[in-house]
Every structure is written in structure tokens, then in C-alpha cells.
């Protein structure tokens, strides 16, 4: 008979060593219902030659196992191994140019047999683990290595638990492992030695060659099953963006859409562009989605197969492809944010922080008279009439001085810290840090809809910057410096 969740739950602990016991362990019981595990009973017989309970000195009798068949199934799942490889498989099936599809999610709707799931932290995802526990699963969490970021404790814990089960269980059964790591071989060999059958369930490209060879040597007791055809049964793709902030550098807006951006459209567009993205359909204040005619595409910052940086290499190509598909309707996030009506400001109510316009960011800070006196000492020599009148003092924001050293920065205009660098930078370099795209020529040139004054890229030699000689007046390809 198949193993139910109640069969695997602990029925008590050993009165000698406090080990958790199930009905499938070798257990001795006294008249007062005190349980003794097999190891403690063997030690008592070897050293004391007695069959008495350690707690009450009553005689011990063995508990008969529930049955002697081979239908008991114990499931062990390596969550990280299955999860990472599933995202890789999803990216391959969708013909994406990135290694993994970060939009993939597990589905917990279907009923699955009882088992033990092994995960790791960080990141802390207690809500996910709790949902799995509510389904009747036992969840074991281990910490990742602070140096390598790997989770070897997960594999070691699985091997230890499986070895302890097959060694201490009086009945024979079946071990089902959802993992393709070669680290599982010691546990599998022990299971085969104790005449337990073993099944491996994993994605095709994730099963190690060592496991395949071991399965070939034990065809009747060990089987490997491939999960690739069942990917859509246990996962789904999250096409909706639900983070707190919209990333400006990898966001594209399609304006005035005349179609419904459903999941079918997203899937086809993602396969054509070769990159995963999620959408945000509009502010929550629009009760009817049709009231918001623009759709915001947020592309995932995933690792590319060619190992090139997404924002520097792939995003520009995606922007051009979208512009060809939807001419005149494509905008980047900074331009869209600048031209958006202040009353219809992009905000996500309680989920997102409201986005300030450029005017609000550059405006001066105003203080009332009461605020001024609460922050500073009272101003002397004020007339009584002036004290009674309400007045407003305006002062500019004081910027913190970041420069700490007078030495010129060795990275010059290529410094990643930019205006926050503590070393000295020239005025030309500081100007470039405020206009960091001016070292690239605009792709559309004369056809650019923003024009030379508003476009983020260079349109002429006058507003072009060279990162070789670190000066304005020409691009790097036209630099006279050898």
C-alpha cells in the first residue's frame, strides 16, 4: 500500500536516546508504553544482558511491523537542484538568449504525496516554505556557505537521512529522489545493499553520468525517470511585474496600444525578442484596464548565454526591435517619466513609491518660519512686526562633499563611482557623469524623435564625449590620441 502522511509522522521517541521513531522503525515496547529503539536495545543486551526498559525496568517486547511488502514510498526532494535546472529548461524551451528564465514559479495546486523537501537560505523565503508545510511536507532548511555560496549541507543531509532510514527500518520500501547530483550515490548504494528499490526523477540535462552508469549496473532495482515532458504540470510563468520599484535602465513603454497584452501576446513577443520580461498594465486607480493605454515592459536582468552584459549589449537591440515592430510608440523609462502628466503620475498606490518628476527633484527646499527656528538658533535684531508676520525662507539643498583626496582618479571618465568618487575628477568628467550616454552616437540620428537637446545620446561632435582622452568634442572612434 502507498505510504500516507500519517505513516511517516513520528509516533514517539526513544526513552534512552530521544531519537524520533516511526512505525517502520525497529521498536521495543514495555507495558507502560515506553519505546526503545533498535540501537539502544542492542547496547542494553550487549553490555547488561537485560531485556528491561531503561525508564521503568519493565520487560520489553518487539512491536510487529505493519506489513512486509515492498510498497512503502519515501520521497526526498532537493529543491534548489530541481528549481535551478527547471529555469534553465524553461529558457531553452522558449528559445531565450539567457541561461535561466527567472519568471518560472512552482505550482502548489496539485496534490503530491508526502515527502521531505530540502532547501537553503539565504534568501529567506519562509512564506514559500510555510505553504509547502501546509501541504503536508516536511521542510529541512540549511545555510549556504558564506564563502562559495554553495549548499553542500543539503546533499549531505539527504544522504544522511536516507542512509539512516534504510538502515533502521524493519520493512523494505522504495526511495524516490528528486535530484541529479552524484553526491547521492553513497545513499543509493546503501539502499541497494539493504534491498531497497530506488527511483531518480530529474530533468534530462541534470542527471549526472555517474548516476546513469549506476542505474545501468542495477536495472531491476534502480530507475531514472525524466521530467522534461511534465514541466508545465508543476510550474507556471509569472508574466506580471510585482516588485516595489521599476528598474529604469531595463524598462520599455509601448504607448497607445490597440490590443490586449495577454499571456499569449507576452509569450510570442518574448520568444521573438529572445529575452524574458514582465509587464505592468497601469496604476491601480484605473479600475478598468482599458483606461490605461500604455503598457510597461520590465526586462529581466538575467545572465546571457554569450556572457555579455544585458544593459550594455542586449537591451539596445531589444529597443530597436520593438521600435521596428511598433514605430512611433516606443519610449524609454526616463523620457516617458519626464513627459507623463503630473496628475497621472506613475505610482502603484501602496505597492510602489510615487515617482518624482524632474521638476520636483531639482526644486528648492522650502521651510516655514517655525521650521527654521526649530532647526536653528533664533535670529537676532528682528522687529516685532516681522516676528508676527508669516514669512518663508528658501534655501538650496546642501550637497555633501564627496571628494576626499586631491589626487586625480586613475580611472578618469571610466570610474564606476562617478560623482560619488572620493578622488579628483575634471569638470569635463563630472559633466560626463551627469550625461553618461554621450559617449555613444544616437542610432536614429536625424530621425530621433527627441532631438539633439533632449536625447540621451550624442548627435554631433559638440555634445560627444571621448573616454580615451576624457574630453568633449568628439567620439572615441574619432579620437586623435593614439
Task: Describe this structure as you would to a colleague.
The longest helix has 17 residues. The protein folds into four domains: 58 residues, Herpes Virus-1 (2-Layer Sandwich), CATH 3.30.40; 161 residues, Rossmann fold (3-Layer(aba) Sandwich), CATH 3.40.50; 101 residues, Alpha-Beta Plaits (2-Layer Sandwich), CATH 3.30.70; 67 residues, no CATH class. 29% of the residues lie in helices and 17% in strands. The N terminus is likely disordered. It has 16 helices and 21 strands. It is elongated. Strand 8, helix 4 and strand 9 form a beta-alpha-beta unit. With 482 residues, the protein is α/β, with parallel strands linked by helices.
Helix-strand blueprint:
Layout: H1 5-8, E1 12-13, E2 20-21, E3 27-29, E4 35-37, H2 38-47, E5 61-62, E6 72-78, H3 79-93, E7 104-106, E8 116-121, H4 126-134, E9 138-143, H5 152-168, E10 173-178, H6 185-193, E11 197-202, H7 209-217, E12 222-226, H8 231-234, E13 235-237, E14 251-254, H9 263-273, E15 277-280, E16 295-299, H10 310-325, E17 330-332, H11 333-339, H12 358-362, E18 365-368, H13 369-375, H14 384-388, E19 392-395, H15 427-434, H16 451-454, E20 465-466, E21 471-472
Parallel strand pairs: 6-8, 6-10, 8-9, 10-11, 11-12
Antiparallel strand pairs: 1-2, 3-4, 3-5, 7-13, 14-16, 14-17, 15-16, 18-19, 20-21
InterPro entries: Znf_CCCH
Keywords: Metal-binding, Zinc, Zinc-finger
Organism: Pocillopora damicornis
Amino acid at each position: 500500500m502507498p505510504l500516507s502522511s500519517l505513516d511517516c509522522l513520528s509516533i514517539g521517541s526513544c526513552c534512552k536516546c530521544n531519537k524520533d521513531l516511526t512505525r517502520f522503525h525497529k521498536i521495543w515496547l514495555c507495558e507502560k508504553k515506553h519505546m526503545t529503539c533498535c540501537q539502544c536495545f542492542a547496547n542494553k543486551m550487549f553490555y547488561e544482558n537485560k531485556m528491561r526498559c531503561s525508564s521503568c525496568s519493565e520487560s520489553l517486547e518487539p512491536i510487529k511491523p505493519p506489513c512486509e511488502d515492498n510498497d512503502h514510498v519515501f520521497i526526498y526532494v532537493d529543491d534548489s537542484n530541481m528549481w535551478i535546472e527547471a529555469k534553465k529548461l524553461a529558457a531553452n524551451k522558449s528559445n531565450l538568449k539567457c541561461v535561466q528564465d527567472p519568471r518560472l514559479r512552482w505550482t502548489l495546486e496539485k496534490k503530491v504525496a508526502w515527502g521531505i523537501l530540502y532547501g537553503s537560505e539565504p534568501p529567506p523565503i519562509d512564506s514559500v516554505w510555510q505553504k509547502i508545510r501546509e501541504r503536508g511536507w516536511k521542510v529541512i532548511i540549511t545555510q549556504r556557505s558564506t564563502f562559495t555560496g554553495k549548499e553542500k549541507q543539503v546533499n549531505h543531509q539527504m544522504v544522511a537521512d536516507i542512509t539512516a532510514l534504510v538502515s533502521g527500518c524493519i520493512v523494505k520500501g522504495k526511495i524516490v529522489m528528486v535530484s541529479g547530483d552524484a553526491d547521492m550515490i553513497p545513499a543509493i548504494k546503501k539502499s541497494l545493499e539493504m534491498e531497497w528499490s530506488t527511483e531518480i526523477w530529474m530533468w534530462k540535462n541534470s542527471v549526472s553520468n555517474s548516476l546513469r552508469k549506476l542505474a545501468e549496473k542495477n536495472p531491476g532495482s534502480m530507475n531514472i525517470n525524466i521530467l522534461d515532458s511534465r514541466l508545465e504540470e508543476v510550474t507556471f510563468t509569472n508574466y506580471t511585474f510585482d516588485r516595489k520599484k521599476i528598474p529604469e535602465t531595463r524598462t520599455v513603454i509601448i504607448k497607445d496600444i490597440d490590443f490586449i497584452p495577454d499571456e499569449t501576446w507576452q509569450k510570442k513577443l518574448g520568444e521573438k525578442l529572445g529575452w524574458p520580461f514582465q509587464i505592468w498594465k497601469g496604476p491601480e486607480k484605473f479600475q478598468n484596464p482599458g483606461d490605461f493605454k500604455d503598457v510597461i515592459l520590465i526586462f529581466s536582468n538575467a545572465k546571457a548565454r554569450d556572457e555579455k552584459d544585458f544593459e550594455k549589449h542586449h537591451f539596445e537591440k531589444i529597443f530597436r526591435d520593438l521600435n521596428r515592430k511598433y514605430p512611433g510608440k516606443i519610449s524609454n523609462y526616463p523620457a516617458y517619466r519626464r513627459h507623463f502628466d503630473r496628475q497621472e503620475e506613475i505610482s502603484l498606490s501602496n505597492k510602489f513609491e510615487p515617482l518624482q518628476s524632474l521638476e520636483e527633484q531639482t526644486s528648492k527646499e522650502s521651510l516655514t518660519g517655525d521650521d527654521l527656528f526649530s532647526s536653528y538658533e533664533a535670529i537676532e535684531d528682528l522687529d516685532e512686526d516681522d516676528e508676527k508676520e508669516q514669512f518663508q525662507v528658501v534655501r538650496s539643498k546642501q550637497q555633501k562633499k564627496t571628494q576626499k583626496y586631491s589626487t586625480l582618479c586613475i580611472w578618469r571618465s571610466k570610474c564606476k563611482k562617478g560623482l560619488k568618487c572620493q578622488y579628483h575628477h575634471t569638470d569635463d568628467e563630472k559633466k560626463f557623469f551627469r550625461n553618461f550616454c554621450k559617449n555613444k552616437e544616437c542610432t536614429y540620428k536625424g530621425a530621433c524623435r527627441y532631438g539633439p537637446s533632449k536625447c540621451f545620446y550624442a548627435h554631433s561632435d559638440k555634445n560627444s564625449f571621448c573616454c580615451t582622452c576624457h574630453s568633449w568634442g568628439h567620439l572615441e572612434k574619432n579620437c586623435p590620441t593614439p
